[in-house]
Amino acid sequence: MDLSKLNQDISNVKPSVLRQFDHDISADPKIVKLTLGEPDFNVPDHIKQAAIKAIDNNESHYPYFWGVQELRDAASSYYHDKFGYNYTSDQIVVSVGATEGLAATFHTLFQPGDAVIIPTPAYPVYKSMSDVNHLQALMIDTRANGCVLTPEQVQQAIDEHPELNIRGVVITDPSNPTGAVYTEEQLHALVPVLRDNEIWVISDEIYGELTYGVKHYTLSKWLSDQTIVINGLSKSHAMTGWRLGFVFGPSGVIDLIAKCHQYQVTAATSIVQYAAIEAMTNGEEDAEAMRVIYEKRCNYLRTALGKLGLDIVKPQGAFYVFVSLPDAWKDDSMAFAKKLAKKQHVGVIPGAPFGDDHAIRISYAASDESIHAAVAGLKAVLEDIGAVPV
Ligand code: PLP
Fold first, then answer.
1. Which helix or strand (DSSP H or E) is residue 115 part of?
2. Which residues contact residue 83 at a Cβ distance below 8 angstroms, ignoring those fewer than 6 apart?
3. Mean of per-residue pLDDT scores for the chain
4. Model ipTM value
5. Are residues 228 and 139 in the same domain?
């Protein structure tokens, strides 16, 4: 068969450098990994018990494609109480992790050729989803404003690209890879330009429960008729492998997203949905125990990296620190990550896939021991390249 006749936008999608690099360094038995965005905690026990009970109760049938009604009811009040979302259960689709929710949303909202603004540094999956849907990804560098998109930048993109049909923007708040969190004012300031230009917002709030000393806000508060919110249990309840997410959106468009979700995956797994009811009913405090530990690690890293003279984006959420490499490092971010892995057995992710080839991302979803080892390893490499302050 002639493969050139297949969807070339798929073959153009770059393989996940992130996972490939993580895989490659895993061959080293001494490696200390601060690579993946994966909570280093177990699923809370009461949720595990609910899953076991669902199996015993033979909850083994095709669930309704939107998701189990009781789960959508529970999610509606859980997120209303946490963040003030205003979505009834018929405006919520239960997806197979946030990722499938994102995929169904990208596929539904846009037509081939439309442009989508992706503020960078960004989670690489958005670009891949733009590519497979034949969209134009307009990457906007936000590093000069603390990694937060400004209304001026949106307006500038519109003015400078009259040839583009800018139909969407992705807001990741808190951010992977930088840990930046939008203030209420910063989010609110985006409303007029997005409303006037009828730009859909995909608001990825998967790290919403993991903020440090600041509150999480949602753009859906002011722009509910043109915002699709993505959330889920991967980070808040350490359930990455269980694949449970939510899509929240206004009536009309959410019905189309539900259809798209149905033809792609049928529904999220029945057992996991029943376990998720428990998470949404009795698991309001589950994230807090983890959040407190992440915050301590975050504070430690901020101080330790500061002492090494490294420039970081102020992390206020998620579980990442995005570190600019010192000027003394003349090569790219992959070369730095490789050197750190090879010489010091410390694994971090190069900044290139996120849109900054002179940075690295450190995940602190890892033990204190690993984090201390990573700082020591980083220090040794910086000394080696002559970049440690006296
Ligand atoms: N969105 C962001 C910003 C992420 O960092 C991740 C995972 O790292 C996801 C979505 C994917 O979440 P899920 O595991 O629920 O698909």
1. strand 115-120
2. 205, 208, 216, 217, 218
3. 95
4. 0.99
5. yes
The pLDDT assigned to 11 comes to 74
First-to-last C-alpha distance (Å) of the chain: 62
Task: Give how many domains the chain has, as a whole number.
Answer: 2
Query: Per DSSP, what are the bridge partners of residue 247?
Result: 93, 230
Structure confidence at residue 231 (pLDDT): 98
Say what the pLDDT of residue 15 is: 62
Range of the domain at 320: 3-42+286-384
> Do 335 and 296 meet the contact criterion of CB atoms below 8 Å apart?
no
pLDDT for residue 283: 98
Largest CA distance in the chain: 65
pLDDT of residue 10: 77
Beta-carbon contacts of residue 276 (< 8 Å; ≥ 6 apart) = 47, 71, 74, 75, 94, 233, 242, 244
CATH assignment of the domain containing 96 = 3.40.640.10
Can you give the pLDDT at residue 389?
Answer: 66
| Residue that the structure tokens 């083994």 belong to | 60
Q: Give the binding-site residues of ligand 1, using a 6 Å CB cut-off.
A: 37, 97-99, 123, 172, 176, 204, 206, 232, 234, 240, 245
Choice from 100, 123, 228, 322 to test ligand 1 binding pocket (greatest atom count within 8 A of CB): 123
Q: Is residue 390 part of a domain?
A: no
Alpha-carbon span 125 to 341, nearest angstrom: 24
Same domain, 144 and 231: yes
Which residues in the chain come in under a pLDDT of 50?
none
Pocket perturbation via mutation, ligand 1, pick of 235, 237, 244 by most ligand atoms within 8 A of CB? 235
Look up residue 243 and give its DSSP letter. Answer: -
pLDDT at 387: 85
pTM: 0.96
The DSSP annotation for 292-306 comes to HHHHHHHHHHHHHHH
Task: Give me the pLDDT at residue 5, please.
Answer: 81
Same domain, 272 and 360: no
